[in-house]
Amino acid sequence: MKKNSLTGVWSVFSFTLKQTLKSKSFIISYIIMVTLASISLPLFNLISPGKNVQGLDAINPVKKVYVNNESSLVDFDFNGLLTDEALAHIRFEKMQEGYDTVAERIQTEEQSSVIMTISDKDGFFNLSFAKAGEGPVNDASLQQLGDAVTTQFYNMKIASMGLNEEQLQKLFAPVSSSVSVTDDLGQIIFEEDTSISSAEYWFIYAILFIILMVSVLSSSLIATSVVTEKSTRVIEYLLISIKPLALMLGKILAMLVAVLIQTGSMVALVFISNTVTTSFLSETGESMIGKLLPENIFANLNIVNIIFCFLLMLLGVLFYGILASFAGATVSKLEEVQEGLTLFTLTCLVGAYLGIGAASALMASGESAYVTFTLLFPLSSSFILPGALLIGKANLLIVVLATLIQIITITLLVKLVSNVFEYLILHNGNTVKPKELLKLFATIKEGK
């Protein structure tokens, strides 16, 4: 690489960043993203405010339950069995009239009453409830009643068998089983459970999705910028004083900063929104972010993990940004950008799906050779490793090795791409196909 290959990087960077920040597409997308970040937690608080959803702590609006017993069991009296303050007022009455007659009366006159049908089939009992289409009884209050009645029905069913307390204890005594692995001497080998919870899985998935979004967004901006300057022939004037490598890196860094401004604003607004929601909108005073994050996440939040997490994200975005600029150089017309990015998009999705597969493997069976591979593999490490690091499923050795591998890969990729970028950046015509790229690489290699 020549000494002056990077001359002009700062000029390209500042020019591209200014143009990007002033573009309508960036401004519109920025407004949409910060708006979503601002309202996301208040909306979550509205749809999941805690125990008081639909007034479940208040008196249940159901006043009477018509019991329609279609099972083989004798009729039960549920009155007095519901001791919860929200349910104790409900009366149970054996249905003497036809089902349609009672249902019609509930629909028109007794909208605070419901029908409970008890049936059995193939040894299984089913309790179903019917309510008026409109009225004070909603799905949440009916669900509350159904859960309570199901518990009481189970107890009454056991009692009807005539079993005493001692027999019931023996009947329902817990039975446990375990499988142990022993060595040649018969000593038990204890295997640590390294699987993750569903909350940790979704945390990894959320981090992966954010990185994927940032990578795709910044890469699309890079490719579009390259193609725009090619189609307007501005690129030819820039190449008079700026080397192709400097042009490529300047654009990549500018788009990276632009996307980081968007992402940073979103993160800041999410925390501000969390503070406002917790202080003024939450009935329990519990942090909205605390509800969404795994319980042990804060045990792994230290300065080293945070630094490596952001470094891995930046390296991943830089890696895919280089590929996107290379893909953009193969296209000469704006309407062909998506076609030119097909191979890049496929590569990006392969890395993301490898990461999702690793997260699923962690939840199903814990750490494995496949998980370790995805943590180190350049295409997937930037997607899966930050989340795995923050939940304690990646040790410092793996993180350092993955970082070094990513830096080495990016360095080699820059050298490889820079050798052919100069030829592609001046190409005008149809989109360069993969076979043509291979021939071009071979030609350049022979020329050396």
Total count of domains: 2
Which shape, going by the Cα principal axes? elongated
Helix content: 55-70%
- Look at the structure and give the mean pLDDT: 77
> Rg from C-alpha positions?
32 Å
Key features of this structure:
single chain; 448 residues; alpha/beta; 2 domains; four-stranded mixed beta sheet; two-stranded antiparallel ribbon; 16 helices
Structure overview:
The protein has helices at 9-22, 24-47, 99-108, 139-159, 165-171, 198-231, 234-238, 244-281, 288-292, 303-329, 337-340, 342-364, 369-376, 378-390, 396-425, 434-447; strands at 64-69, 91-94, 113-121, 124-130, 181-182, 188-189. By secondary structure, it is of the alpha/beta class. The protein has two domains: 3-42 and 195-447, no CATH class; 62-137. The protein has a four-stranded mixed beta sheet with strand order 2-1-3-4, with helices on both faces. A two-stranded antiparallel sheet has the order 5-6. Helix 6 packs across helix 14, helix 10 (303-329) runs antiparallel to helix 14 (378-390) and helix 14 (378-390) runs antiparallel to helix 15 (396-425). The protein is elongated. The relative contact order is 0.12.
